[in-house]
Write a structure and sequence with these properties.
alpha+beta; globular; 3 helices; HigB-like; YaeB-like fold; six-stranded mixed β-sheet; Type II toxin-antitoxin system RelE/ParE family toxin
Length: 126
Amino acid sequence: MECILYKGNAFCIEWYHDTKGNSQALKFYRALNQKQKIQFLKLVKLMGDIGKIHNKEKFRNEGNKVFAFKPMPNRFLCFFVEGKKIVVTNAFVKKQNSLPVNEKIRALKYREDYIERVKEGAYYNE
């Protein structure tokens, strides 16, 4: 599966995928309209090239090593890994002020799965 979303000077940003090659975040992204895709890609490019987004309304630490790209009204959760990588785990439309617990749990579960599969040498060979 092609998992690279963007490769910049500061970070390589990838889509997380499960053992079947499915990516909830990529599927969500593909369903967005052109304007929403561009909003998200601008944030991805900025993070990939510069390595930091200072505006907390655009990128934020959500705790437990989970971060969020925040192109309104959508959220793309992600985590950082060694080797200057960011892995985008899941995405959703923001409908409330706080991060939905189930979405954060999903991101944490995907992070754990990613780390385990990389450790086994299975993630990038699927």
